[in-house]
Amino acid sequence: MSASAPGSVQPQGAQAGAQPTGHAASATATVESDLFEIRRKIHPRAVSGLLARWRVAMVVLTQLAFYGTAWLQWNDRQAVLFDLAARKFYVFGFVFWPQDFIFLTGLLVVSALSLFLFTAVAGRLWCGYACPQTVYTELFMWIERRVEGDRAARMRLDAAPLDARKLRIKATKHLLWLALAAWTGFTFVGYFTPIRELGQSLLVLGLGPWESFWMVFYGFATWGNAGFMREQVCKYMCPYARFQSVMFDSDTLVVTYDARRGEPRGSRARTRDPRALGLGDCVDCGICVQVCPTGIDIRHGLQYECIGCGACVDGCNQVMAKLGYPKGLIRYSTENAIAGRYRDADILRHLARPRTLLYAGLLALVSAAVIGGLLLRTPLKVHVSRDRANLVRELDDGRLENVYRVQIINAREQERRYVISAHGIAGVEVLLDEPQPVRLPPAGARTLPVEVRVPAQSVRPGSTPLVLRVEAADDPTVSLERTTVFTAR
Predict the structure, then answer these.
(1) How many whole angstroms separate alpha carbon 290 and alpha carbon 315?
(2) How confident is the model over 226-276, as pLDDT tens digits?
(3) Which CATH superfamily is domain 380-488 in?
(4) So where are the chain's domains?
(5) What is the DSSP string of 403-419?
(6) Which pLDDT does position 21 carry in this prediction?
């Protein structure tokens, strides 16, 4: 007895091993084709134009920020460094600790609201111009074009049998890809291990296991995603492609094809009037498809695979200019503008609508809260816990003593001295193992045992509220109080 192939569909009533015929065979073939579609390699054609220059500018800007920021110095340290071992996160003049998790939460909320706002206003601009997948794919394709040639040359090379020339060209390309990927992995790890120390360790082959692992992992991921998977990441792996439609509406700016002007499409001589031939402006040259990095045909309407890069806009405009037709057959527009509900000149006026105003208002509110919190935060953190090994001890003079563990974090990058005091109970006295004020190094932390003594008559049996205060010796405005309890028998 023969078994059907996994994922195949047999017509109802067909016997095992029987081959469907006629329409049934056609339907089965269609279903199997949909389920087992093999990726068709895309060879994007190079394109020039205004939007292409914007993409190049964004590639340069983002990579200058990524590769360059890791080497910047601030206060004799790396300007941006996420020191996981010491649990300190340096961002220029700010030092963050795990207790500052609220600021990371705020940053994530700001990022999400920004994405919602930009998507509601102008579609997938992030994907087309600033997403790391798009940026590194552009870099890898630039190397590919330099080594292998234009689109036609690359297609011929891929179709040619493997010989010495093809092996040399392909090897050169992959060596350059691997060099860029390795430098990217090195830079990424350099944000978690000081990059200058990392470079010295790399030169003497003294990298630690974690640095080596993440450098290889991130470099390999860059090489695989930008060199091989490319549009597959955007189409199948990125969740944004799937839920973007919920943020679109009829007034969202997206890359659109003006079917009313372009149809019916067809080729014609440059000197012929398309209206006399009953044709639209689209000459069906296929340039819009050839330049698309995801290989879609924008003339079929907006598709989730479209990343909004505008390459088809530049390609179509070049063809229109050569034919002497008006540009903008493919352009950034809105569904309502294309349908003729208002003019293109009125598009900007329709950007301010309830959805975008709500996103913009929430974004401004959360951003203000995060910035205000950063500017107003006290450069001091204090955590108090009771020593449970000795809940209460009676001294020879009749006083009672509790011991606390006080953690002090100096969130500034200057040395500071702090005084620990207590109030809330009459006659309370604070003693430390060292004289006050207590010294803390720049961006340093210390946990101190603190003895608190009170007269027995000042507290009742059980727990009595007590306030411990930590204050900078040179600046009384830098202080924090923590409420705890004093335990008596």
Answers:
(1) 9
(2) 999 999 998 888 888 777 778 888 999 999 999 999 999 999 988 888 889
(3) Immunoglobulins (2.60.40.10)
(4) 1-11+20-38, 249-346, 380-488
(5) EEEEEEEE-SSS-EEEE
(6) 46
